[in-house]
Design brief:
This protein is mainly alpha-helical. The chain is built from six helices and no strands. The N and C termini lie far apart (about 45 Å).
Length: about 120
């Protein structure tokens, strides 16, 4: 089965990368654009920095998407990505993770039994 990465999630994660992952570009770009209200040179530099931030965000998310849709040697990763790329998306991932958590014994309870 070929996985199809959800388009809506792709753009949501691009926005997240734009604001938080590359914050060293987004914050100065926004500040330069605000200063650009009075100084046009700062506006152009700020827009260029934000454009670079957007390009980096799209490239980074494309790399993540390619890793998610390709099959891995790790069966747990494949199971998780099959759930994420399904029509249910995040709800399916939540179900898979809940099942994994329920099937994994607590380390704390096993430590108490051993002592």
């Amino acid at each position: 089965m070929e996985r199809k990465y959800p388009q809506k999630m792709f753009w949501l994660f691009v926005l997240t990368n734009f604001l938080f992952h590359f914050f060293y570009l987004s914050v100065p770009g926004i500040i330069l654009c605000i200063v650009g209200i009075w100084i046009k040179t700062c506006l152009y530099i700020g827009c260029a920095v934000l454009g670079l931030d957007l390009i980096f965000s799209i490239v980074e998310q494309s790399r993540i998407r390619n890793a998610a849709v390709s099959h891995s040697e790790n069966p747990e990763f494949n199971e998780l990505m099959d759930a994420f790329c399904s029509p249910d998306g995040l709800q399916a991932v939540r179900k898979v993770l809940d099942e994994k958590i329920k099937s994994t014994p607590d380390d704390e309870s096993e430590k108490g039994k051993d002592q």
